[in-house]
Amino acid sequence: MRRAAHEGLHKGIAKDYFPIQQNEAIYLVDAMLRDASSWENHLQRATTSAIMSLIYATPMIKDENEPSVAYINGFASRITQAAFPGAHYVEFFTWMKFLPSFMAPWKKYAEDWYKKDEVVFKGFYNDVRKHVMAGDERPSFCATIIKDKLNEFNDVEAAFLAATIYATGAESSSAVLAWFMHAMLLNPEVQRKAHEELDTVVGRSRMPTFSDYDQLRTTVIANVLSLHRDPEIYGPDATEFKPERHIVNGRPAPAMADGNGRDVAFGFGRRICVGRHVANYGLFIDIACILWACHILPVRDANGKPVLPVDDDEVNHGLVV
Protein backbone atom coordinates (compact mmCIF):
# COMPACT_ATOMS: atom_id res chain seq x y z
CA MET A 1 0.00 0.00 0.00
CA ARG A 2 2.81 2.40 0.78
CA ARG A 3 4.24 1.94 -2.73
CA ALA A 4 0.87 2.79 -4.27
CA ALA A 5 0.53 5.82 -2.01
CA HIS A 6 3.99 7.03 -3.03
CA GLU A 7 3.32 6.57 -6.74
CA GLY A 8 0.10 8.55 -6.46
CA LEU A 9 1.61 11.45 -4.50
CA HIS A 10 5.31 11.73 -5.42
CA LYS A 11 6.90 15.08 -6.25
CA GLY A 12 6.54 14.73 -10.02
CA ILE A 13 2.85 13.93 -9.99
CA ALA A 14 2.14 16.51 -7.28
CA LYS A 15 2.49 19.23 -9.92
CA ASP A 16 -0.49 17.79 -11.79
CA TYR A 17 -2.59 19.03 -8.89
CA PHE A 18 -1.44 22.67 -9.12
CA PRO A 19 -4.64 23.87 -10.90
CA ILE A 20 -6.80 22.37 -8.15
CA GLN A 21 -4.74 23.91 -5.36
CA GLN A 22 -4.53 27.30 -7.11
CA ASN A 23 -8.30 27.51 -7.57
CA GLU A 24 -8.92 26.46 -3.98
CA ALA A 25 -6.52 29.14 -2.70
CA ILE A 26 -8.31 31.85 -4.71
CA TYR A 27 -11.73 30.75 -3.46
CA LEU A 28 -10.37 30.54 0.11
CA VAL A 29 -9.08 34.12 0.06
CA ASP A 30 -12.33 35.42 -1.43
CA ALA A 31 -14.34 33.68 1.30
CA MET A 32 -12.07 35.04 4.05
CA LEU A 33 -12.39 38.59 2.73
CA ARG A 34 -16.18 38.27 2.61
CA ASP A 35 -16.56 36.70 6.06
CA ALA A 36 -13.42 37.01 8.17
CA SER A 37 -15.13 35.85 11.37
CA SER A 38 -15.56 32.34 9.93
CA TRP A 39 -11.91 32.00 8.90
CA GLU A 40 -11.47 28.59 10.54
CA ASN A 41 -14.49 27.17 8.71
CA HIS A 42 -13.08 28.55 5.46
CA LEU A 43 -9.75 26.78 6.09
CA GLN A 44 -11.52 23.51 6.84
CA ARG A 45 -13.65 23.77 3.70
CA ALA A 46 -10.66 24.63 1.50
CA THR A 47 -8.46 21.76 2.65
CA THR A 48 -11.36 19.32 2.57
CA SER A 49 -12.35 20.34 -0.95
CA ALA A 50 -8.76 20.24 -2.23
CA ILE A 51 -8.04 16.78 -0.82
CA MET A 52 -11.35 15.41 -2.12
CA SER A 53 -10.43 16.70 -5.60
CA LEU A 54 -6.89 15.30 -5.38
CA ILE A 55 -8.07 11.87 -4.26
CA TYR A 56 -11.39 11.46 -6.08
CA ALA A 57 -11.37 14.15 -8.83
CA THR A 58 -14.52 15.75 -7.41
CA PRO A 59 -15.51 19.33 -8.33
CA MET A 60 -14.81 22.12 -5.84
CA ILE A 61 -16.94 21.74 -2.73
CA LYS A 62 -18.41 25.08 -1.68
CA ASP A 63 -20.57 23.77 1.15
CA GLU A 64 -18.65 22.49 4.18
CA ASN A 65 -21.73 20.45 5.16
CA GLU A 66 -21.76 18.44 1.91
CA PRO A 67 -22.77 14.88 2.95
CA SER A 68 -19.80 13.00 1.48
CA VAL A 69 -17.36 15.38 3.17
CA ALA A 70 -19.15 15.08 6.50
CA TYR A 71 -18.97 11.28 6.22
CA ILE A 72 -15.22 11.09 5.63
CA ASN A 73 -14.56 13.74 8.28
CA GLY A 74 -16.48 11.48 10.65
CA PHE A 75 -14.24 8.60 9.56
CA ALA A 76 -11.16 10.71 10.37
CA SER A 77 -12.62 11.61 13.76
CA ARG A 78 -13.21 7.94 14.59
CA ILE A 79 -9.62 7.09 13.65
CA THR A 80 -8.34 9.91 15.86
CA GLN A 81 -10.46 8.86 18.83
CA ALA A 82 -9.47 5.20 18.46
CA ALA A 83 -5.77 6.12 18.30
CA PHE A 84 -5.74 8.07 21.57
CA PRO A 85 -3.77 6.13 24.20
CA GLY A 86 -6.12 4.37 26.57
CA ALA A 87 -9.15 4.72 24.33
CA HIS A 88 -10.06 1.05 24.91
CA TYR A 89 -9.30 -1.35 27.75
CA VAL A 90 -8.06 -3.95 25.25
CA GLU A 91 -4.85 -1.91 24.97
CA PHE A 92 -4.02 -2.87 28.55
CA PHE A 93 -5.79 -6.23 28.82
CA THR A 94 -4.89 -7.86 25.52
CA TRP A 95 -6.85 -11.01 26.31
CA MET A 96 -10.00 -8.94 25.70
CA LYS A 97 -9.40 -9.10 21.94
CA PHE A 98 -10.65 -12.70 22.06
CA LEU A 99 -14.03 -11.69 23.47
CA PRO A 100 -16.98 -12.13 21.10
CA SER A 101 -18.54 -8.96 19.74
CA PHE A 102 -21.64 -9.14 21.96
CA MET A 103 -19.34 -8.92 25.00
CA ALA A 104 -17.08 -6.22 23.54
CA PRO A 105 -19.02 -3.08 22.55
CA TRP A 106 -15.91 -1.46 21.09
CA LYS A 107 -15.46 -4.41 18.72
CA LYS A 108 -19.12 -4.34 17.64
CA TYR A 109 -18.85 -0.57 17.08
CA ALA A 110 -15.81 -1.03 14.81
CA GLU A 111 -17.41 -3.90 12.87
CA ASP A 112 -20.61 -1.93 12.25
CA TRP A 113 -18.74 1.11 11.00
CA TYR A 114 -16.49 -1.01 8.81
CA LYS A 115 -19.51 -2.33 6.92
CA LYS A 116 -20.81 1.21 6.36
CA ASP A 117 -17.39 2.58 5.43
CA GLU A 118 -16.76 -0.18 2.92
CA VAL A 119 -19.91 0.69 0.97
CA VAL A 120 -19.21 4.44 0.93
CA PHE A 121 -15.50 4.27 0.12
CA LYS A 122 -15.94 1.66 -2.60
CA GLY A 123 -18.57 3.95 -4.11
CA PHE A 124 -16.11 6.86 -4.29
CA TYR A 125 -13.41 4.61 -5.72
CA ASN A 126 -15.66 2.99 -8.31
CA ASP A 127 -16.89 6.38 -9.53
CA VAL A 128 -13.30 7.22 -10.45
CA ARG A 129 -12.84 3.81 -12.06
CA LYS A 130 -15.84 4.44 -14.35
CA HIS A 131 -14.29 7.69 -15.60
CA VAL A 132 -10.90 6.02 -16.10
CA MET A 133 -12.48 3.22 -18.12
CA ALA A 134 -14.35 5.81 -20.21
CA GLY A 135 -11.14 7.81 -20.78
CA ASP A 136 -12.51 11.06 -19.36
CA GLU A 137 -10.88 11.13 -15.94
CA ARG A 138 -9.22 14.14 -14.33
CA PRO A 139 -5.89 13.86 -12.48
CA SER A 140 -6.44 12.20 -9.11
CA PHE A 141 -4.82 9.75 -6.73
CA CYS A 142 -7.39 7.05 -7.46
CA ALA A 143 -7.03 7.51 -11.22
CA THR A 144 -3.26 7.10 -10.94
CA ILE A 145 -3.35 3.82 -9.04
CA ILE A 146 -6.10 2.47 -11.32
CA LYS A 147 -4.39 3.41 -14.61
CA ASP A 148 -0.92 2.32 -13.56
CA LYS A 149 -2.22 -0.92 -12.09
CA LEU A 150 -0.51 -0.09 -8.83
CA ASN A 151 -3.28 -1.50 -6.70
CA GLU A 152 -1.76 -4.93 -6.18
CA PHE A 153 -4.47 -5.43 -3.60
CA ASN A 154 -8.23 -5.73 -3.84
CA ASP A 155 -10.73 -2.93 -4.39
CA VAL A 156 -11.66 -2.72 -0.71
CA GLU A 157 -8.02 -2.14 0.28
CA ALA A 158 -7.61 0.44 -2.48
CA ALA A 159 -10.79 2.24 -1.41
CA PHE A 160 -9.69 2.39 2.24
CA LEU A 161 -6.19 3.53 1.23
CA ALA A 162 -7.69 6.48 -0.65
CA ALA A 163 -10.04 7.36 2.22
CA THR A 164 -7.23 7.17 4.78
CA ILE A 165 -5.02 9.50 2.73
CA TYR A 166 -7.93 11.92 2.48
CA ALA A 167 -8.61 11.79 6.23
CA THR A 168 -5.00 12.36 7.27
CA GLY A 169 -4.30 14.97 4.58
CA ALA A 170 -7.33 17.14 5.28
CA GLU A 171 -6.87 17.02 9.05
CA SER A 172 -3.17 17.86 9.03
CA SER A 173 -3.35 20.60 6.36
CA SER A 174 -6.20 22.49 8.02
CA ALA A 175 -4.39 22.29 11.37
CA VAL A 176 -1.18 23.74 9.89
CA LEU A 177 -3.11 26.61 8.29
CA ALA A 178 -4.91 27.31 11.58
CA TRP A 179 -1.57 27.52 13.38
CA PHE A 180 -0.25 29.76 10.60
CA MET A 181 -3.10 32.20 11.32
CA HIS A 182 -2.30 31.93 15.02
CA ALA A 183 1.38 32.71 14.38
CA MET A 184 0.54 35.72 12.21
CA LEU A 185 -1.70 37.18 14.93
CA LEU A 186 0.99 36.86 17.57
CA ASN A 187 3.85 38.03 15.32
CA PRO A 188 2.72 41.07 13.28
CA GLU A 189 6.32 42.04 12.46
CA VAL A 190 6.89 38.68 10.74
CA GLN A 191 3.63 39.17 8.84
CA ARG A 192 4.79 42.63 7.74
CA LYS A 193 8.03 41.20 6.33
CA ALA A 194 6.08 38.52 4.45
CA HIS A 195 3.82 41.20 2.96
CA GLU A 196 6.87 43.16 1.81
CA GLU A 197 8.38 40.13 0.09
CA LEU A 198 5.11 39.28 -1.64
CA ASP A 199 4.74 42.87 -2.83
CA THR A 200 8.30 42.78 -4.19
CA VAL A 201 8.14 39.40 -5.92
CA VAL A 202 4.47 39.19 -6.94
CA GLY A 203 3.23 42.79 -6.96
CA ARG A 204 -0.37 43.92 -6.57
CA SER A 205 -1.63 43.37 -10.12
CA ARG A 206 -2.04 39.60 -9.72
CA MET A 207 -2.22 36.89 -7.08
CA PRO A 208 0.60 34.47 -6.23
CA THR A 209 0.87 31.38 -8.42
CA PHE A 210 3.10 28.33 -8.41
CA SER A 211 5.39 30.12 -10.87
CA ASP A 212 6.44 32.24 -7.88
CA TYR A 213 7.48 29.19 -5.87
CA ASP A 214 11.19 29.44 -6.69
CA GLN A 215 11.25 33.24 -6.34
CA LEU A 216 9.61 33.25 -2.90
CA ARG A 217 12.49 31.25 -1.51
CA THR A 218 12.20 30.30 2.14
CA THR A 219 13.40 27.39 4.21
CA VAL A 220 10.49 26.28 6.39
CA ILE A 221 11.26 24.43 9.61
CA ALA A 222 8.50 22.30 11.12
CA ASN A 223 7.67 23.22 14.71
CA VAL A 224 8.79 19.98 16.36
CA LEU A 225 9.44 21.11 19.93
CA SER A 226 12.15 18.62 20.84
CA LEU A 227 14.20 19.54 17.75
CA HIS A 228 13.47 23.17 17.08
CA ARG A 229 13.58 24.82 20.48
CA ASP A 230 17.10 23.74 21.37
CA PRO A 231 18.99 26.85 22.59
CA GLU A 232 22.34 25.17 21.89
CA ILE A 233 21.45 25.20 18.19
CA TYR A 234 19.09 28.14 17.83
CA GLY A 235 20.32 30.44 20.60
CA PRO A 236 18.80 31.70 23.84
CA ASP A 237 15.75 33.06 21.98
CA ALA A 238 14.91 29.65 20.46
CA THR A 239 11.31 29.83 21.70
CA GLU A 240 10.60 33.07 19.83
CA PHE A 241 8.86 32.99 16.43
CA LYS A 242 11.68 34.21 14.17
CA PRO A 243 11.59 32.55 10.72
CA GLU A 244 14.53 34.68 9.61
CA ARG A 245 16.84 32.81 12.01
CA HIS A 246 16.98 30.00 9.43
CA ILE A 247 18.27 32.21 6.58
CA VAL A 248 21.62 34.01 6.42
CA ASN A 249 22.30 36.07 3.29
CA GLY A 250 19.69 34.14 1.35
CA ARG A 251 21.09 30.73 2.28
CA PRO A 252 20.34 28.21 5.05
CA ALA A 253 21.86 29.21 8.38
CA PRO A 254 24.66 27.04 9.86
CA ALA A 255 22.13 25.27 12.10
CA MET A 256 20.42 24.10 8.91
CA ALA A 257 23.57 23.11 7.05
CA ASP A 258 22.96 19.37 7.25
CA GLY A 259 19.18 19.49 6.86
CA ASN A 260 19.13 18.98 3.08
CA GLY A 261 15.79 20.76 2.92
CA ARG A 262 14.00 18.09 4.93
CA ASP A 263 10.95 18.87 7.04
CA VAL A 264 11.22 16.69 10.11
CA ALA A 265 7.48 17.00 10.79
CA PHE A 266 6.97 14.59 7.88
CA GLY A 267 9.11 11.89 9.47
CA PHE A 268 12.27 10.19 8.26
CA GLY A 269 13.61 7.39 6.12
CA ARG A 270 11.37 4.75 4.60
CA ARG A 271 8.40 5.91 6.68
CA ILE A 272 8.51 9.56 5.68
CA CYS A 273 5.09 10.96 4.78
CA VAL A 274 4.29 10.06 1.16
CA GLY A 275 2.06 13.12 0.78
CA ARG A 276 4.65 15.71 1.84
CA HIS A 277 5.09 17.24 -1.63
CA VAL A 278 1.36 17.69 -2.19
CA ALA A 279 1.01 19.07 1.34
CA ASN A 280 3.86 21.58 0.98
CA TYR A 281 2.62 22.81 -2.39
CA GLY A 282 -0.89 23.24 -1.02
CA LEU A 283 0.30 25.11 2.07
CA PHE A 284 2.53 27.34 -0.06
CA ILE A 285 -0.24 28.54 -2.35
CA ASP A 286 -2.79 28.96 0.47
CA ILE A 287 -0.44 30.93 2.73
CA ALA A 288 0.96 33.05 -0.11
CA CYS A 289 -2.53 33.98 -1.32
CA ILE A 290 -3.81 34.69 2.19
CA LEU A 291 -0.89 37.00 2.98
CA TRP A 292 -1.08 38.62 -0.47
CA ALA A 293 -4.74 39.51 0.05
CA CYS A 294 -5.17 39.88 3.81
CA HIS A 295 -3.80 41.53 6.92
CA ILE A 296 -4.38 39.07 9.74
CA LEU A 297 -5.49 41.09 12.75
CA PRO A 298 -7.07 40.14 16.09
CA VAL A 299 -10.70 40.89 16.86
CA ARG A 300 -11.36 43.68 19.38
CA ASP A 301 -13.31 43.54 22.62
CA ALA A 302 -16.06 45.92 23.73
CA ASN A 303 -13.42 48.48 24.74
CA GLY A 304 -11.66 48.35 21.39
CA LYS A 305 -8.65 46.42 22.68
CA PRO A 306 -7.24 43.57 20.54
CA VAL A 307 -7.96 40.06 21.82
CA LEU A 308 -4.97 37.76 21.27
CA PRO A 309 -4.69 34.01 21.83
CA VAL A 310 -3.37 33.42 25.32
CA ASP A 311 -1.62 30.04 25.08
CA ASP A 312 0.53 29.33 22.04
CA ASP A 313 1.24 25.80 23.23
CA GLU A 314 -2.39 24.67 23.40
CA VAL A 315 -3.12 22.08 20.71
CA ASN A 316 -6.64 20.90 19.92
CA HIS A 317 -6.46 20.13 16.19
CA GLY A 318 -6.66 16.36 15.95
CA LEU A 319 -4.12 13.61 16.34
CA VAL A 320 -1.47 14.65 13.80
CA VAL A 321 -0.58 18.04 15.27
Automatic annotation (TrEMBL):
Subcellular location: Membrane
Superkingdom to which the source organism belongs: Eukaryota
Gene Ontology molecular-function annotations: heme binding; iron ion binding; monooxygenase activity; oxidoreductase activity, acting on paired donors, with incorporation or reduction of molecular oxygen
Pathway annotation from the record: Secondary metabolite biosynthesis
Chief location: membrane
Classification via Pfam families: p450
UniProt keyword terms in alphabetical order: Glycoprotein, Heme, Iron, Membrane, Metal-binding, Monooxygenase, Oxidoreductase, Transmembrane, Transmembrane helix
SUPFAM superfamilies: Cytochrome P450
Gene3D superfamilies referenced in this protein's UniProt entry, alphabetically: Cytochrome P450
InterPro entries, per database record: Cyt_P450 (IPR001128), Cyt_P450_CS (IPR017972), Cyt_P450_E_grp-I (IPR002401), Cyt_P450_sf (IPR036396), Cytochrome_P450_fung (IPR050364)
Cofactors (names): heme
Topological category with respect to the lipid bilayer: Single-pass membrane protein
Binding sites annotated in the UniProt record for heme: C273
Family: Belongs to the cytochrome P450 family.
PANTHER family assigned to the protein according to its UniProt record, in alphabetical order: CYTOCHROME P450 MONOOXYGENASE ALNH-RELATED, P450, PUTATIVE (EUROFUNG)-RELATED-RELATED
Entry protein name: Cytochrome P450
